[in-house]
Amino acid sequence: MQEQIRRLKTEAHTQVSTMADAQLQGGHGGQGSQEGSFSRLLKKDHDYKPLSLSDPDKVIGIVAHAIDQGVPAGYTYFGQFVDHDLTFDTRSTLQTIEGGLSSFPNDERTPRLDMDCLYGLGPSSAPFMYDEDGRLATSPDKPFDLPRSAIRFKPDDPASHRAIIGDPRNDENSIVCQLQLAFIQFHNAMIAHFKQQGMAGGTLFRAAQREVRFTYQKIVVTDFLKRIVQKPVYEDFVQDRSAGGDKAYKLYKKGELRHALPLEFTGAAYRFGHSGVRNAYRLNEKFQRLIFNGADDATESLVGFGDLPENHKIDWSLFVTDKLAPGAKGSNPSQIGGQDVPTDSRRLQYAYKLDTSLVNPLLTLPPRIGGAGPLFNSLAARNIKRGYNFSLPSGQDVAKALGVGTMKTEDGVTKIDKDSDVGTQLGPVGGRILLEVFFGILDDDPESYVHAEPGSWNSVVKAGSDTITLWDMLRFVGLV
Questions:
Q1: 43 Cβ contact partners less than 8 Å away, ≥ 6 residues apart
Q2: How far, in Å, CA of 64 to CA of 51, rounded?
Q3: Residue 48 vs residue 40, higher pLDDT
């Protein structure tokens, strides 16, 4: 009997490993790997009982309606960029895990906003990504695209050259790949800036890297978070943190917990951005396509992991703006009274509502992203299945731990607050998790801007300002 049990466990572990290898073919939605563990904000079986699904292998998504949420669409992909900076999974599986086994993931990324998705292993360990001054590689022949390997990933596909960047996932689609390129250009601009001040060698690289990291961290907490978290939730936490320091944290408390990112963040709360994805995007005045169409065809969709077509060159003014302050919600609807607004090739695009639905293209991911097999090509299914495999708590459990009350719905049934301001921003549960994690990792990182000596850092991009936006960075490098 013992031998039979040992054999069954070995077979199950082999299946898990095989699934992990299959996931690497696509690499979408990763959240952990071999380098370090994740943590939990709540104790399983003590603070909550894991959710059960009647049939976890047959979950489906609800197709989203085209309702803009008031947050410029570029922040959906900035959020994806940040996710790739924090987490990377090459081990966990989407297969249902039998009792006694585990698909608990580990994280290949550092729980820091240190931009390892941009810098990779650095100039010494990844010299093919840098020149002698520490500039990141670009593509002189195609300046609109990322630098790419001369070798075709698929020998019979002339457009299958993989990007030479710090994180391969930042080539997943035509938007995030050009955001990666924007940060490459920003780093190179900082190399030029500090070189003019007489710096050279490692000192030059470290100065540029520090400036890029600090700017990026400021964008996260003074622009991105303000746009996606309700203003009272954001301001209450920031004020409590300013006054009480570590005492402001209710969940992601200082200590061993912060040695890793919590699964409630990586596997649940931070996946809010999937609901904000639009069916299609206008990349410039002349080109608009579906985000994905189920096939590896970049001429008819924005699928990545291959050469970027020249007509995909992005006009960032269609994705971000300087006319909408962080925390403010814009209004430029694609429909009024149920009728489509006339096409405007210069219209600022907004992310869709934050709710329980996804757009249709995310229900059939292309092979480059979802993998070659039919298993879980629906992003909705992937999200729910990971939550099931990782034994995540429900939103109600987290709300209870935070002391968040309930509300009455129209049908009179008492339910936990749906955690959104009419679908535009995250509230006291999802928003609180994001605030505690992002500020917590900055507080615990001795090399973050939070710990810079007073007066030792004055932003190159926006000197003297406490708020730095994504628009500010893009404007500095001449992209808006």
A1: none
A2: 24
A3: 40
159 CB-near residues (< 8 Å, 6+ apart): 298, 306, 307
The count of other CB atoms within 10 Å of the CB of residue 274 is 23
DSSP 8-state code for residue 182: H
Please, which pLDDT band fits residue 480 given cuts at 50, 70 and 90?
very high
Per-position b or e across 60-85, b if 16+ CB within 10 A of its CB: ebeebeebbbbbbbbbbbbbbbbbbb
Query: Domain locations in the chain?
Result: 18-476
Q: What is the DSSP string of 351-392?
A: EEP-SSEE-GGGGS--HHHH-SSSTT--HHHHHHHHHHHTTP
Task: With CA atoms as reference, report the closest residue to 66 among 350, 375, 472, 366.
Answer: 350
Q: If you count DSSP H runs as helices and E runs as strands, how many of each does the chain have, helices first?
A: 14, 14
DSSP collapsed to 3 states, 350-361 = EEECCCCEECHH
Tell me the sheet residues that pair with 282.
Answer: 288
Q: How far apart are the first and last CA of the chain?
A: 68
Of the CATH numbers 1.10.640, 1.10.1060, 3.40.1000, 1.10.3470, which one belongs to the domain with range 18-476?
1.10.640
The pTM score is 0.85
